[in-house]
């Protein structure tokens, strides 16, 4: 026996209802303007009336200082850098995906990461994640896995290489890994491929 569950369509709400909904959403978690607009779209009226209501809610929330992409970007970057120990490239990618404007991302990251020692941050990430030094017959495989993990965490290959070199691994384990290879600086070239908001 199967149950046919049809999703009950919500009645669209006006500006007052959208405002109440948006305040509740923001009380639970920080959001970008784009993210909040996406959530409100499911509740707003269709067409121009819904767009006007969402615009009015966003303006009002911005005036009340409940909603700010600048504050979101700064807080998000600080938390990812200090708590998660993520590198610059990872935070950049995350902010772009969340709809923060490219110029705001660049200025926020410059302010947060320009005076940061990337190698020290990578070491802190390794310690936080309890990544163990590769050893044994499959040390090369472990090293490659660790390098991939550090790349996904947003570190440049030169910083990763320095961290791996500090472990005094056998040359076989470091085979194929070159210092100054694909760097996070070369990632800036790929920024052009990211959507602009």
TrEMBL record:
Family stated for the protein in its record: Belongs to the RecX family.
| Principal location class | cytoplasm
Q: Where is this region: Disordered?
A: 174-197
Q: Which GO terms describe its biological process?
A: regulation of DNA repair
One GO CC term on file: cytoplasm
Question: Function of this protein?
Answer: Modulates RecA activity.
Span of domain RecX second three-helical: 68-109
* Protein name, entry field: Regulatory protein RecX
Query: What's the gene?
Result: recX
Which compartments is it annotated to reside in?
A: Cytoplasm
Q: Which residues form a coiled coil?
A: none
Compositionally biased region (Basic and acidic residues): 179-189
Q: Which UniProt keywords apply?
A: Cytoplasm
Q: Report any Pfam family annotated for this entry.
A: RecX_HTH2
Note the HAMAP family from the entry.
RecX (MF_01114)
């Amino acid at each position: 026996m199967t149950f046919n569950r049809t999703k009950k369509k919500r009645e669209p709400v006006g500006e007052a209802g959208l405002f109440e909904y948006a305040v509740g959403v923001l009380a639970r978690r920080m959001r970008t303007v784009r993210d909040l607009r996406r959530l409100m779209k499911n509740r707003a009226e269709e067409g121009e009336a819904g767009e006007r209501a969402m615009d009015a809610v966003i303006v009002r929330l911005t005036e009340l200082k409940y909603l700010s992409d600048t504050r979101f970007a700064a807080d998000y970057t600080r938390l990812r850098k200090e708590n998660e120990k993520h590198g610059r490239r990872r935070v950049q990618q995350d902010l772009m995906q969340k709809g923060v404007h490219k110029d705001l991302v660049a200025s926020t990251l410059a302010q947060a990461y320009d005076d940061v020692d990337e190698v020290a941050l990578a070491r802190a990430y390794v310690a936080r994640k309890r990544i163990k030094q590769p050893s044994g017959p499959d040390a090369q495989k472990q090293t490659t896995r660790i390098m991939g993990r550090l790349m996904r965490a947003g570190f440049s290959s030169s910083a990763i290489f320095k961290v791996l070199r500090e472990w005094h691994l056998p040359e076989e384990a470091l085979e194929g890994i070159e210092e100054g290879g694909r760097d996070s600086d070369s990632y800036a070239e790929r920024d052009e491929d990211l959507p602009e908001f």
